[in-house]
Amino acid sequence: MTATTFNWSCKYTWKRSAKNTAWCLLGCAIGDFGTILFFQLTKIPFPVLGIMTLAIINGLITSIILETVVLMKQDLDFSKALKTAMGMSFISMISMEVTMNLTDYLLTGGAILTWWVIPIMLLVGFLTPWPYNYWRLKKFGVACH
Fold first, then answer.
1. How far apart are CA 143 and CA 145, in angstroms?
2. Number of DSSP helices (H) and strands (E) in the chain, helices first
3. Helix, strand, or coil (residue 9)
4. What are the two backbone dihedrals, phi and then psi, of residue 6, each rounded to the nearest 5 degrees?
5. Pick from 89, 91, 114: which is nearest to 103 by CA?
6. What b/e sequence results for 68-89 when a residue is b if at least 16 CB atoms lie within 10 Å of its CB, and e otherwise?
7. pLDDT tens for residues 55-72?
8. What's this model's pTM, rounded to 2 decimal places?
9. Full DSSP string of 28-97
10. At 130, is the pLDDT very low, low, confident or very high (cuts 50, 70, 90)?
């Protein structure tokens, strides 16, 4: 398939890639928001950039864990599920995490969860990797779930 003939209008692929992206977002958000909330509640003095870096790392870890569990429930053994979770969606997870935290930083100054910023962070985190996930699924038939 060449770039000129690539089909961006397949509703089935958009729906399936949306499901995959949502699973990734759930996993990333657990670690990311959990880390920010921990520092917000404990008031431990730590630089904003440090908190956001830890949030990104923890988001990646929890996403990999969640995706590994989902894949194991689809009858993959642990090793294969972990390898698949780490390899197939790492670009999605990194782009998702960076844009979520950049959004937080631009809107609140960083490492602050409020009732109004969370939905925006989630929306940006979902929309950023979704076209990549569609492309990867359509071009290579590669999905995480």
1. 6
2. 6, 0
3. coil
4. -65, 135
5. 114
6. bebbeeeebeeeebbebbeebb
7. 999 999 999 999 899 989
8. 0.89
9. HHHHHHHHHHHHHHH-----HHHHHHHHHHHHHHHHHHHHHHHHHHTT--HHHHHHHHHHHSHHHHHHHH
10. very high
Task: Identify the band that residue 145 occupies on the pLDDT scale cut at 50, 70 and 90.
Answer: low
114 Rama class: left (phi>0) / alpha (psi -120 to 50) / beta: beta
- In angstroms, rounded to a whole number, what is the distance separating the alpha carbons of residues 110 and 64? 24
How does pLDDT run across 84-100, given as a tens digit for each residue?
Answer: 888 767 888 999 999 99
Distance (Å, whole) CA 23 – CA 68: 11
Query: Is there a contact between 20 and 137 (Cβ–Cβ < 8 Å)?
Result: yes
Q: Which position has the token pair 């990734």?
A: 24
Please calculate the CA angle 115-121-125 and round it to the nearest 5 degrees: 150
Calpha distance 125→134 (Å, rounded) = 15
Amino acid identity for residue 47 in this structure: P
Task: Please count the other Cβ atoms lying within 10 Å of the Cβ belonging to residue 103.
Answer: 19
